[in-house]
Design goal:
The chain is of the alpha/beta class and about 240 residues long. The protein has eight helices and seven strands, in the order H-E-E-E-H-E-H-E-H-E-E-H-H-H-H.
Length: about 240
């Protein structure tokens, strides 16, 4: 399954009231949205046809999140669904997640792109390949270590994998408190020592199984009724369900 196909399924089954995309490039991700949407990118060049109620923000994600009225476009004042595909450097991706989480709710969905590079070259911090994932893959281990309360699931999508994050807690400040320590510990020079489990996607889930899960309807129902977020831990059983590479 290609990454945008997975995004389309989530839009259809979860039916978000609001969608935020960090790093919109040519608009192929935005084209999946049919809801009120904010797209953020300092240098976008949209070529896709769009059919959503859209606010475009030509800015870096840091500048966008620093605005007091960043998500005033969303009447409910919360982000239901976020796709993070900004600058492919670990520290920026981690900040994007931290900033996204504080504007989300317990029933929100966050998806990060480029977490399964296919080679050490593709995982370099300094781009020298046509397709570039950077060291974004490091965010998975960091969330698992520092935020075990979250449910994280790697997805075997093309071309460079996705990370699904559920169990969002906008009140949690652990990452913000440890951010400098984490970045100092995790950031390394090229070439990046990419684990074999990442390169061969051994822990990744089959995105079709995840897309077909009843969790999307359950999250949507909880969101609309104000009920507590449903348990999502069962998705962890899908880890490693993708075909071996």
């Amino acid at each position: 399954m290609e990454r945008h196909q997975f995004l389309s399924v989530i839009h259809e089954r979860y039916r978000p009231r609001s969608y935020l995309e960090i790093g919109i490039n040519d608009g192929l991700g935005l084209a999946r949205s049919r809801t009120r949407t904010i797209g953020v990118d300092p240098d976008f060049c949209i070529t896709a046809e769009l059919a959503c109620d859209l606010e475009l923000v030509r800015a870096t994600s840091d500048d966008f999140f620093a605005r007091a009225d960043a998500i005033s476009w969303f009447p409910d004042g919360v982000v239901d669904f976020t796709f993070i595909d900004g600058l492919h450097l670990f520290e920026f991706v981690l900040r994007d997640f931290m900033n996204t989480e504080r504007l989300s709710a317990s029933t929100s969905v966050v998806v990060l792109d480029d977490v399964l590079p296919r080679s050490v070259s593709e995982a370099a911090r300094h781009q020298h390949t046509l397709l570039w994932a950077g060291d974004t893959y490091k965010v998975t281990a960091v969330l698992e270590r520092h935020r075990p309360d979250l449910t994280t699931l790697l997805l075997d999508t093309e071309p460079t994998g996705l990370l699904l994050v559920l169990g969002i807690d906008p009140t949690n400040t652990v990452l913000a408190e440890r951010y400098d320590e984490i970045v100092a510990e995790v950031t390394t020079d090229d070439p990046q020592p990419v684990p074999d489990d990442i390169l061969h996607r051994r822990a990744a889930a089959d995105p079709r199984l995840v897309a077909g899960s009843p969790i999307w309807g359950e999250l949507a129902t909880a969101r609309s009724t104000g009920a507590p977020a449903p348990p999502v831990e069962a998705l962890r059983s899908l880890r490693g369900s993708a075909a071996p590479r």
